[in-house]
Amino acid sequence: MINNRKLLITLLAVCSLYFCVHVINNSGTPVFRELQQSGRNLAALEANLDNGPLVVQDSLLSAEPTRIFKNSPISVPNARDASPMEKTIPEKVLDIIKCMDKPMAAKTQQRGDYWVLYNYITPEKKFRCHESITYTTHADYSFMDNLVPLLDRWRGPISIAMHAPGTDFQNTIDSIAYLRDCVDPLVKEYVTFHVYFSTKHVPKVVPKHNNVLTEPYNCSLTPPFANVSSDQMYKAQKKLLYPVNVGRNVAREAAQTHFILPSDIELYPSPNLINKFLNMIADNKGPLLSKNPKVYPLHIFEVGGNQQVPETKTILKEMLSNKSAIPFHKNLCPSCHNIPKAKEWQNTEETEGLHVFHVGKRNGKYIHWEPIFIGTHNDPLYDERLSWEGKSDKMTQGYALCVMDYDFLILDNAFLVHKPGIKLYKKDSRRATLAAKTNQLIKKIIFPELKVLYGIRKGCAV
Ligand SMILES: *[C@@H]1O[C@H](CO)[C@@H](O)[C@H](O)[C@H]1NC(C)=O
Ligand SMILES: *[C@@H]1O[C@H](CO)[C@@H](O)[C@H](O)[C@H]1NC(C)=O
Ligand SMILES: *[C@@H]1O[C@H](CO)[C@@H](O)[C@H](O)[C@H]1NC(C)=O
Ligand SMILES: *[C@@H]1O[C@H](CO)[C@@H](O)[C@H](O)[C@H]1NC(C)=O
Prior knowledge:
The protein contains 16 helices and 16 strands. The protein has helices at residues 2-22, 32-38, 40-48, 79-82, 89-97, 147-154, 168-183, 185-190, 234-237, 244-253, 273-283, 313-321, 334-337, 342-347, 395-403, 429-454, and strands spanning 54-57, 65-68, 107-111, 114-121, 133-139, 158-163, 191-198, 259-262, 267-269, 294-297, 299-303, 325-327, 356-360, 373-376, 407-411, 415-418. The chain is globular and about 55 Å long. The relative contact order is 0.10. One 2-acetamido-2-deoxy-beta-D-glucopyranose (NAG) binds at residues 218, 220-221. Keywords: Signal.
């Protein structure tokens, strides 16, 4: 009897731990609390201890039984292993990443010198943290022509922060309304819009989040983002800088999913990336098992202005060989986006699914690499003192990743393609001046801070 009681206590301790760690219901609430409250399962345990194998049926968890055997040594096998039923991909992903869902709530908040309307316009589809990847990005309304081509290939959640100072605000709202009501239902389904502006450039009228887009948009009107020239914009009239990293961070922090793809809106991912990526995560093999923190960079390409964006790596390879596609920024800043083993990647045939092609580091030849990658909320954010015009806006994050010894797990069959049109070098003296100032800011102020906060490691630089 005493022995049995000891056994029971041990069992309960193990069980509590087990449920506490592993069982999370759909709203992210540990089911453990429910088990404790009901006492039903505990009673069942006691009654069955002497009667051979016991099955605790937990319908909240899944239809799978957890078997607990009477003979010592007592072990509580993982329900996943003992199960005769194969788990779904999202269930496997959840087991591995153990993420928590968070609510998508509208809020108005200050962030440094900016006001931010988080979750200002929200989508119909909601995703739990393990169910997808969120493409997080930033823009002003003149870039909104990219949203539908991007969505068409991504087909998953997008979190976008829109810079909308002064009179740019109404054009931004009208652009969103036009895309949602007149262009493609995918916009309403998948895209969360956040809006932000400097405290010095607050628009005259800002409707509450539940009072914006109350009227359907008149689809006969020309969308505000069509053929907009930059001098029509409030931002240009007031000579404001584009606070790219405020936008990046807002969009990232508000993303609902564990995995995120922080990117620039003109970069379109290869189709079916989300499913392929989650399958790879669920497989959890090879370099994915390393203890180092990891991100998953994507190769980036440009295609000619009159070209289609390639759907597969096979087509991309053909376009590379006839020069209708080239590696991104080949003409502007080859070292910024040059990826380890790039030539080998381009010479490797497309295969089924998605795998790690090569594990790289941001050092040696790649010391200034500004990769775009699938990562998580654990990755360092971007420095909000840096602007798009000043350049080097992702370098400080790159330094932090290097010091933290991140593995860069380069993916084999996935890639990004810039909106068609190959970029040529254009002289811009205002940008050159700002870039020089930014370099000083990074060298004199930011880099010393990063060394204090993240430390130093041989081979790492901003
Ligand atoms: C998860 O648990 C909470 C708290 O018990 C409950 O309110 C919620 O409805 C549950 N969610 C689902 C999807 O079962
Ligand atoms: C929509 O816009 C068109 C073009 O400006 C205009 O002719 C039409 O009257 C508008 N419709 C409504 C319902 O406002
Ligand atoms: C934008 O400009 C292009 C070329 O200049 C023209 O073909 C197109 O019709 C214009 N679009 C709108 C909506 O005005
Ligand atoms: C290059 O290859 C692509 C894909 O096969 C094809 O669509 C395109 O027309 C080709 N371009 C030239 C200039 O041959």
